[in-house]
TrEMBL record:
UniProtKB keywords: Acyltransferase, Endoplasmic reticulum, Membrane, Transferase, Transmembrane, Transmembrane helix
Single GO MF annotation: acyltransferase activity
Protein name as it appears in the record: Membrane bound O-acyltransferase domain containing 1
GO biological process: lipid modification
Membrane topology: Multi-pass membrane protein
InterPro entries, per database record: LPLAT_7/PORCN-like, MBOAT_fam
Organism field: Lepisosteus oculatus
This protein's GO CC annotations: endoplasmic reticulum membrane; membrane
Length: 503
């Protein structure tokens, strides 16, 4: 029998709190996942309390900042124990850089230190100390912190060192014109709404939320757009504050559905079975392809659950309001991290990518793609690869995605217009492109889940490298129309993936 005071005897090792170990043992769920879920459920309740009782009309911004920080610190210590020290070291180190560094270089130093520390932690956790994939994985929150540190550093540089005419419209809106005080900085980095799963949001948006001007400023942004004007937004600051309850309930129901699917499907369709030698030798190619497709589908609900729940938590606190949509309804998707419907119905590789881990894609665009003087796509790819980690499977995924993305664009530009002559033909084209897109995604992201070189090559051999060979031939045969650099800047194609680890 396991003794509570002997962590080494636990079937699921963790450096986090052992308080919920009986729950973990009863349900047979890893303790780190129980801790995570408990913290997120507590965060949801705290978020409602934060909006109702710590509203800016009732308390000062100092109180709101302090409570957000303390709850965030409690969550990371509860989930990660002494591993949380890595998060605090990075946050305080980069605050020192922000305060002491020359304004013209603060963004460079912050990027180098944050990415360097993240990479060192990932290398040491995976290789040097042979941690492998421990049930306690602190790199997810560290990845989110890295995004926040660099986002703030670049936006601070925009506000202090660049002229307005040098900035894009979005950069001007998000530019930070003074260095944050320690309390503001820690609240942005460590707040309980996003400390565990994210997403990363812009500093000014977060501060406006804390100060209580977030909703009204979002409503006022639409008053100059006549098509979206609605009686709900006629007078700035005098309308009742929109309630997020409807959006929160909808997202919670969706999260519960995704959790049920994850618990039922993932164990029934394990990813590891794709590289089972007996399965590969005995099953036909079509059977292997079919199983790969459904096993990847079964893996997605974990991400859907975590990201949708995180979005609901922010909304419950009153954060995430994006304005009024074209139908005149209040929208709470400012910091949403995915669009499940568009992911599942994606008819192109780009459509899938653009709706998966949306805020990471926005971060890559804002800190790299929009600022790179040369080769923005290549540099964005490098930053994305470094940010995700050091497992070889991650790099297999990114490299495999390149010819598939280029080939998909070539096919679309050369053939799509032939299928628009009638509704029936277009539906058939959409069904075909949906199937190809989903299979391409399955083939591309499999190494991301297998992680290591040998299982990745085993899987690709069993698939005869078909999604390497066919796209490469398409790229060589079909003409590709290259867009200008400025046109690419306005319509970037980024590669982003998850910051939630499979355990």
């Amino acid at each position: 029998k396991c003794r509570m005071e002997d962590p080494q005897s636990f079937p699921y090792r963790t450096t986090g709190s052992l308080f919920l170990y009986p729950v973990s043992e009863f349900f047979g769920v890893p303790l780190d996942q129980v801790n995570f879920l408990a913290c997120q459920l507590f965060a949801l309740l705290a978020a409602f309390w934060f909006r109702l009782y710590l509203h800016p009309k009732n308390v000062s911004t100092t109180v709101r900042h302090a409570v957000a920080i303390l709850l965030g610190i409690f969550f990371v210590i509860f989930c990660f124990g002494w591993y949380s020290a890595h998060i605090f070291i990075l946050v305080f180190s980069c605050y020192y850089i922000m305060v002491k560094a020359n304004n013209h270089n603060v963004h460079r130093y912050s990027l180098i230190v944050a990415m360097g520390y993240l990479t060192l932690c990932q290398v040491s956790r995976v290789y040097i100390f042979s941690y492998g994939i421990l049930s306690t994985d602190f790199s997810g929150p560290l990845m989110i912190i890295t995004q926040k540190i660099t986002t703030l550093a670049f936006q601070l540089h925009d506000g202090l060192c660049r002229k307005a005419e040098q900035l894009t419209t979005e950069q001007r809106r998000l530019a930070v014109n003074s260095k944050p005080h320690l309390l503001e900085y820690l609240s942005y980095q460590l707040n309980f709404l996003s400390i565990l799963v994210g997403p990363c949001s812009n500093y000014k948006d977060y501060i406006e939320f804390i100060e209580g001007t977030h909703v009204y400023k979002r409503l006022s942004m639409g008053t100059s757009m006549e098509n979206n004007i609605n009686e709900k937004q006629n007078v700035y600051g005098t309308v009742p504050e929109p309630s997020p309850v409807g959006a929160v309930i909808k997202k919670l129901l969706l999260s519960i559905g995704c959790l049920i699917l994850f618990l039922s499907l993932t164990k029934a369709l394990p990813i590891s079975y794709n590289i089972d030698s007996q399965f590969i030798n005995e099953a036909s190619f079509l059977a292997r392809l079919t199983y790969a497709f459904f096993s990847i589908q079964a893996a997605r609900p974990k991400f859907y659950f975590a990201w949708t729940l995180a979005d609901a938590i922010s909304n419950a606190a009153g954060y995430g309001f994006s304005g009024v949509d074209k139908d005149g309804n209040f929208s709470w998707d400012l910091i949403s991290n995915l669009n499940i419907w568009k992911i599942e119905t994606a008819t192109s590789f780009k459509m899938f990518i653009d709706n998966w881990n949306i805020q990471t894609g926005a971060w890559l665009k804002r800190v790299c793609y929009d600022r790179a003087p040369y080769y923005p796509t290549a540099l964005t790819f490098v930053l994305s690869a470094l940010w995700h980690g050091v497992y070889p499977g991650y790099y297999f995924t990114f490299i495999t995605a390149i010819p598939i993305t280029i080939a998909a664009k070539a096919v679309r530009k050369n053939f799509r217009h032939y299928f628009l002559s009638s509704w029936t033909i277009k539906i058939m084209y959409d069904i075909l492109t949906w199937a190809v897109t989903q299979l391409a995604v399955c083939y591309t992201v499999m190494p991301f889940l297998l992680l290591a070189v040998e299982p990745t090559l085993t899987f690709y051999k069993s698939m005869y490298f078909h999604f390497h060979i066919i796209p490469s031939l398409i790229v060589l045969i079909l003409p590709i129309k290259h867009r200008s650099h400025m046109e690419q800047k306005s319509h970037p194609s980024h590669i982003s993936n998850n910051n939630i680890k499979y355990n």
